[in-house]
Design brief:
By secondary structure, the protein is α+β, with helices and mostly antiparallel strands. About 35% of the residues lie in helices and about 20% in strands. The chain is built from two helices and three strands. It has a three-stranded antiparallel sheet, with helices on one face. Strand 2 and strand 3 form a beta hairpin. The mean pLDDT is about 90.
Amino acid sequence: QGHAGRILAAVIADADAAGVTLILEARACAGLEQSALEAWYGGFGFSKTGLSETFGPVLARAPRRLELRRAA
């Protein structure tokens, strides 16, 4: 239904506005493949850091600047 994606997009928008890097541990459960979970987060700009913690691999997303463009 897309609820998780909408919530994550809102968190990302707030983090970008504040210049905050988001860091999370991604651990698949309920029959979801780990690679599918990491790909889902990857679609939002998260990438593997090479670190792993208690719950799984650590993913991070650096803030992105919003670019304002003038109308032609």
